[in-house]
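Dissemination and training. As part of the outreach component of the grant, students in the summer workshop were shown how a complex can be specified as a set of sequence lines and then modelled as a single object. The example used during the hands-on session is reproduced here so that future cohorts can follow it. Participants entered these lines:
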Amino acid sequence: MTHASSQGRLTVVGLGPGNAELLTQQVRNSIASATDAFGYFPYIERLSGLEHLTLHASDNREELERARAALHLAAQGKQVLMLSSGDPGVFAMASAVFEVLEYAAPDEQLLWQAVHIEVQPGITAMLAAAARLGAPLGHDFCTINLSDNLKPAEVIERRICLAAQADFAMAFYNPCSKSRPQGFERALKVLRQECEPERLICFARNVSRPDETLNVVPLAAASAEMADMRTLVIVGNSLTRKVGPHVYTPRSYGVQARG
Amino acid sequence: MTHASSQGRLTVVGLGPGNAELLTQQVRNSIASATDAFGYFPYIERLSGLEHLTLHASDNREELERARAALHLAAQGKQVLMLSSGDPGVFAMASAVFEVLEYAAPDEQLLWQAVHIEVQPGITAMLAAAARLGAPLGHDFCTINLSDNLKPAEVIERRICLAAQADFAMAFYNPCSKSRPQGFERALKVLRQECEPERLICFARNVSRPDETLNVVPLAAASAEMADMRTLVIVGNSLTRKVGPHVYTPRSYGVQARG
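and obtained this result:
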């Protein structure tokens, strides 16, 4: 099946956290009707075996080049998928695509203007992790990428500090990696300054995959090596508690519980 | 099909923002194998026509009674669904279920202890809205329920203020309703104190439904009547901008753009 004569399309899709059952029907349909798929190696691997697709795998940190290549192919009339894990709009490829569009050279702008661009949501890691834990994000919360590749570490620390003062629950993406072993350690240091030692810290690793692990500890017992690059960390707010094996944050705040 | 002799199960599922294409396969499977479904009227309506299900609709603000009734039925061996729109863990039913479990009377605890409880994630409104707008949540952000049913208005205002100081993008759920017409007006007042007049405010109403509307204005032009109870509001951070019809927040912050 070729679409060379039809309008080119770039569809930025979220594959969810890993388990194929967490894909939406919308994304399944987009995969079925695409001609080409771009993405980071492990995401491309999730589509291997689909013979109607030409696969274009690339390395991490090559997001802008990948977006450019995908737009070029879509401008030729192809039906192009850009793969993200989780949701494409949360620390993933959607923002990179729009960044490339904004800084396009005049010849690229001319080429790309006919491409239809669509973003299709997915289950982002914090929602999958929260569901497995219980309901730790059941009240106001914030979402912070702990990677300092694209922002200063001081900005991250300031945000954690203000979030603690606002008593948000917090979801941390990319808590650390081999190139940034100290990322989560710095976050823990801020949390220890701002929060009580009983504050619940949840570590969800490889959520929805066969080797998923969940670990919930009080802040006083949390340590940096509990998180790696495959871990999503959720910090409770001051009211987050356990009921049996479940962690949840009450809906009410600063008013009498209605239990 | 009856499951009266099998283990009772309460599965708290997210139906996504409205369009059936945004359901996950996991939730579809759970709907197919359930015996009973509990939920707020309009969510129950989305399952009408499924003859294998006994439907138990109830009104808004009856979340705790609904959770109790669902647990009672599951304790009798039924396969019970608890319906949420969006994601059940984000301002929805999951937290209410765990609240009821925590405050269960001794006889209820005894009855309910054999029930298997599972939360299954869904596409929450802010992810669907962000995808339709572009990528406004592409950098650190926070998520605030503007309803003051379950928390003081002062807490909400303080959180918006601190979130602005952290330069988070913000997603506002339940910006206002007939009983709280002033909710979003108060939020706008805080934003006007903390943010520049050019800050982008995005209104996404009935996202993913046939009557979806999107509206993006600078803070200076935003007004309270632009949001109603079916609107999800996204406030950009200080770097959020438009590229063509799309709104996006750059991945980089406080470092040189890599365009």
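The mean pLDDT of chain B is 94. Students were then asked to discuss how this feature might be tested experimentally.
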